[in-house]
């Protein structure tokens, strides 16, 4: 279906008033924008790859209570981010919001903290794919899966994502559309298989809400908090709808809905999936003690061959999740480099003339994600007795990095609103109305709480990694960027008032 040219013209004018030309190909519809966030959230990645983590610390009750608790509060965060995306529809997203609501230095820190989280989420997702794919491939070719073979598999998966993202947004957009339906179809197959073909009977429904059982050495309530990483990491990356906003048609409405509905649908569909997986458990202690709890549970419930087919379907869904995450990460770096916020910015801001994609930013995203996992691999080689798991480390880094970046513009919006610098007239067509402040406060409190929980032992390595990166950022800022970072074009000499004024001028020009 062709898109009326007046839609493109209006979207172009909306972007122009923020000081940017339309460079990226604007071809994504509302479903495609939703699909990229839904694919990155990927209940078949986060909830599945960290299933053993949640089960070990919180038992079955982690699925019955932990998932809904996290999802509820994440919906508050998603709602505020959707409101900001509608008000400030640029690919820079979080850091543009921070810069416009306060100043360019707040924007610079937001961008780099978001970048840290993006490195963690891409590495975590593709490492999850490798953790599932490598044992399945090993069973076919007869080799032993170990840390080295997983790292090789991880590298190959990253390369496939880099190549496809380089080739073009149309291909990736179609694959993301397919991915959304594929996720739903695989969950349906998994749920129906467990409902009708589980060996033996399913556990009673009240087993899903069983509390007090932990397979860790922590007191239950403390262990339950640690186990929340499973759900919290799943609900990350939905800012992708904002990062691809300059490629979306009618972005001030479609991108906010993409952010919010991707979380809402993942909440419901994920809960149904986790419920049936958990109710099919035969021996929770054995599952928690296995190398991969999800593979163990599915194999026990459905048998070897049928279980392997289901696991291959799940692994493919994870692969789609990684593909979408590279798209989001590269757009964030492209937007930041366009504003000269990174070393060698002129390189990462280049658009491929043939494919109209930020090709160099895509490959930088691949390299940085590989390095995070490779550094962890070296640490494990030097210290094989390390108690933390690679996947917990990568995912905790991404949760803290992303949610701190989510929280900064939310906090700045509350401050700007209290000072009268952000008013109702500055809102976009998608907004929370009179409930905006309340929802923003709840979202901010949850972010503070969850970021503290994510770095307490046994995830202290993630805290050390994030702290080290923050120290490096401070050094970079004071040594160079404090005096040399020009900031987002819209934030140079622009307030929300100025943006409203520009909008009126552009409307007058277009009417003439």
Automatic annotation (TrEMBL):
Chief place of localization: membrane
TM segment ranges: 34-53, 65-85, 106-129, 149-168, 180-200, 220-238, 259-281, 293-326, 361-379, 391-414, 435-456, 462-481
Pfam families: AA_permease_2 (PF13520)
Keywords: Membrane, Transmembrane, Transmembrane helix, Transport
Keyword GTP-binding: no
Taxonomic lineage from the root: Bacteria, Bacillati, Bacillota, Bacilli, Bacillales
Domain of life the protein comes from: Bacteria
Species of provenance: Paenibacillus alginolyticus
Matches recorded under InterPro entries: AA/rel_permease1 (IPR002293)
Membrane topology field: Multi-pass membrane protein
Alphabetical list of Gene3D superfamilies matching this protein: Amino acid/polyamine transporter I
Protein name in UniProt: Amino acid permease
Subcellular location: Membrane
